[in-house]
Amino acid sequence: MTSDKQEKENGLPAGTPSSGDCELCRAPGGRLVLQGPRWRVVRVEDRDFPGFWRVIWNAHCAELTDLDAAERHECIEVVAAVEAVVRRRLAPTKINLAALGNMVPHLHWHLIARYDWDSHFPQPIWGARQREIAGGALQRLGIELERVDEELRQSLAPRSK
Q1: Residue 125 within a domain
Q2: Domain contains 121
Q3: Is the pTM of this model over 0.90?
């Protein structure tokens, strides 16, 4: 368990079970958007993929089946709620949704807004770059991501209690 002092240092809720060698137990994992008792939503600051969020389960576990049925339902509902806001606000060509965790064995979902104009499309984000984006992807996106974050907070607030 983390202490209140650790919470101030790593941004995780007091009492969050952790593994000291896990990056997602030690730190929020991105720009914190909203944190509930069992999960948190962060925005990943990536210059090529500005529409990139993560849903991270706070307790240290590696797989979806490590959660009980109610927790799995809650986790997937949060992922779906984030996807709905991202689709509505950013109108991507596609949402990439992944729970890889190969390098960080801690349950988390990547939600990445993809566009037919992005630097790697149709390749995965870790694939070969297909093009350069004049002015950068954030400028091409044409929206302040803080507004999307605020809508995510409003949408998820009832679930975060």
Answers
A1: no
A2: no
A3: no
**Token code pair at residue 49:** 């993929």
Residue 14, in any domain of the structure: yes
DSSP per residue over 38-106, as a string? SEEEEE---SS-SSEEEEEESS--SSGGGS-HHHHHHHHHHHHHHHHHHHHHH--SEEEEE---SSS-S
Q: Quick one: what percent of the chain has pLDDT higher than 90?
A: 73
Does residue 123 form part of some domain?
A: no
Q: Model confidence at 71, in pLDDT bands (50, 70, 90)?
A: very high
112: nearest Cα among 153, 58, 54, 152: 54
Could you tell me which residue, 121 or 160, shows the higher pLDDT? 121
For the chain, how many structural domains are there in total? 1
